[in-house]
Amino acid sequence: MRSAAAAVSGAILLASLASGPAAAGPTLLLDADNGRVLYAEDQDDLWHPASLTKIMTAYVTFEAIKAGKLTLETKIPYSENASLQAPSKIGLPVGAEMSVELALQALIIKSANDVAVMLAEAVGGSEQGFATLMNATAKRLGMSRSNFVNPNGLPNAEQVTTA
């Protein structure tokens, strides 16, 4: 007799844009092996992406590394614009540098808003240039109803996505 866990084949992907234990919001549960929808609730509703934005920032940065635009060892500067971001942040002095590798770790582990801006400026030349790259990447990935305007997910009425 197989256990319930063994009966579930392959990986399962859950996309939920809600936060907190009682939050409602778009949710989509997929079988990652075949793309079959196992559960969906309000999956087409527009929602603010919050930290999903940082996942896109990391993804676009990894694409830039793959394309040879920069390396994990590349040093990127801490700009005044990065220093003006709301916490959570690293809080380096303006002009300081860190490697792309360390920046990616701070982005993913600490959810550092200032480091998201550092990466955006290094990859896209500016936050706006990076947002253009994020939106092009989203469209290419099939995220046709997503719109990114900043690299860190800080509140902006125009920054939306769906599950």
Overall description:
The structure is a single chain. The protein starts with a helix and ends in a 23-residue tail after the last helix. It is 37% helix and 13% strand. By secondary structure, it is α+β, with helices and mostly antiparallel strands. The N terminus is likely disordered. The strands form two sheets. Strands 1-2-3 form a three-stranded antiparallel beta sheet, with no helix packed on it. Strands 4-5 form a two-stranded antiparallel sheet. It is globular, with a radius of gyration of 17 Å.
SSE inventory with pairings:
Layout: H1 4-7, E1 12-16, E2 27-31, E3 37-41, H2 52-66, E4 75-77, H3 80-83, E5 97-99, H4 100-110, H5 113-124, H6 127-140
Helix pairs in contact: 2-5, 4-5, 5-6
Q: Could you give the order of the helices and strands?
A: HEEEHEHEHHH
Number of helices: 6
C-alpha geometry = globular
Mean pLDDT: 88
Q: What is the beta-strand fraction?
A: 5-15%
| Uncertain residue segments | 1-9
